[in-house]
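As agreed, record passed on underneath.
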Amino acid sequence: MRFVLLFLLFSYCSEKAKPVDESEVYKIKGLAFSQCINEVYPGFEDRYNDGSASGFFQTSNVSIDDLPKIDSLATRHSKKEFLSATKSNLGLMRCLELYNSQELEEFAIKVSKN
């Protein structure tokens, strides 16, 4: 009986301890960053023929079900107000804040483990 319980406990812990795929986390964060840039600078993707968001999505394990959360994070950060002495847009700053945020990091880790 002890052997069975130990085996079940080990099996459960092994599943929970699935390693984080850092390259997948990078792709998810890159997708969110690209989406944020596209929000801050409408037309950026078309104007510069930049397919970064599509590239990150296509090479990642992100599912369609994860996209609303990524879009929501990108939109929220793209609309954040940053004060600039020169009245500059600071769009890259907002998107970099998203890229480095704990919220995006935790989400990317969670998705990468799926």
User: Anything to note?
Assistant: Helices lie at 2-16, 22-40, 44-47, 52-59, 67-78, 91-99, 102-112. Residues 22-40 form the longest helix (19 residues). The chain has one domain: 21-112.
